[in-house]
Amino acid sequence: MSERASATARRVERSAPVGVLDFAHWKRERRPISVLTAYDHTMARLLDEAGVDCLLVGDSLGTVVQGHDTTLPVTLDQMIYHAEMVARGASRALVVADLPFGSYQESVGQAIGSATRMLKETRVRAVKLEGGVARAATIRSLVEAGIPVMGHIGLTPQAVYQLGGYRVQRDEERLLADAVAVAEAGAFAVVIECVPAELAARITATVPIPTIGIGAGPECDGQVLVTPDLLGLFDAFRPKFVRRYAELGETIRAAARAYVADVSERRFPDESESFR
Ligand code: KIV
Fold it and tell me: What is the pLDDT of residues 134-153, one digit of tens each?
């Protein structure tokens, strides 16, 4: 481990669990916020130990865990199942869970019911939901009920059919209005997905809450990536904005090939791996 990485690890070890108020503080201090997705306990523990500030139990699990084409089939029960495992794996990172498609759009009452279940049954400390101006009333009611909310604007995957696909969102006035509406409704942060860097920078300078970018350039207050993308585990498509920090897909294939060869040649298990 480099000196800088071990200094970060020591600082992180000593520090208290991250709360939503830290996000506001970090925006004021211009301290970048790191967010990654997590879907299970083992990965949550590893990412937490590495010092990631926030773990998002994203409904992207519909594509990268369940193998669907979109996030639309994911259910609230499935999100709760994954969020509970992630929350048990994180001791420092703030854990936020997505409310999936169909669990909050019907009414404010439905949204409060879904978010309440999420917090009670999983011990995550905040929920994320998609939409700007159209979801402001829902966000306000959740916040008034004491439930911290992370917003999500720009390319909102739950609206993929309405948006005509997974495309960069460029409508400047609409996106600014969405960001302002989410902030005024009381969200503690907002994800901005697939928006030109200049526009994301303008939104970041306009709203008082931290912006967390994905495909939204370097000037957001924080960044989020889908962990299987970052680790090289997911190959179905490779968005331009993903930086791959590892090629674990190749590592896993090589390990499995070596195991198959050892079993076929009776090299596994050997004496040291057997009981007598
Ligand atoms: O579901 C998810 O993983 C997300 C991130 C891409 C922000 O919403």
Answer: 999 999 999 999 999 999 99
Long-range CB pairs of 7-10, under 8 A, 24+ apart, other chains included: 8/51, 9/49, 9/50, 9/51
- Residues facing residue 97 across a β-bridge: 57, 127
Give residue-wise pLDDT tens across range 50-95.
999 999 999 999 999 999 999 999 999 999 999 999 999 999 999 9
Residues with catalytic roles: 193
In whole angstroms, what is the distance from residue 24 CA to residue 189 CA?
8
Pocket test for ligand 1, best of 191, 192, 231 (most atoms within 8 A of CB): 191
> Distance from CA of residue 197 to its chain's centroid?
20
Three-point CA angle 44, 47, 51, nearest 5°: 130
Q: Whose CA is nearest to atom 8 of ligand 1?
A: 58
Q: Note the pLDDT of residue 89.
A: 97
Q: Report the residue count for the chain.
A: 276
Measuring from atom 2 of ligand 1, which residue has the nearest CA?
A: 58
CA distances from 185 to 4, 51, 131, 207 (A): 39, 30, 12, 12
Domains parsed from the chain with CATH numbers = 3-245 (3.20.20.60), 248-276 (no CATH)
Q: What spacing in Å lies between the alpha carbon of 252 and ligand 1's midpoint?
A: 24
Expressed in angstroms and rounded, the spacing between residue 226 Cα and the centre of ligand 1 is 7
- Residues 215-255 have pLDDT tens digits of 999 999 999 999 999 999 988 888 999 999 999 999 999 99
Which helix or strand (DSSP H or E) is residue 138 part of? helix 136-144
Predicted model pTM: 0.94
Q: Which residues line ligand 1 (CB under 6 A)?
A: 37, 56, 58-60, 98, 152, 191, 214, 224, 226
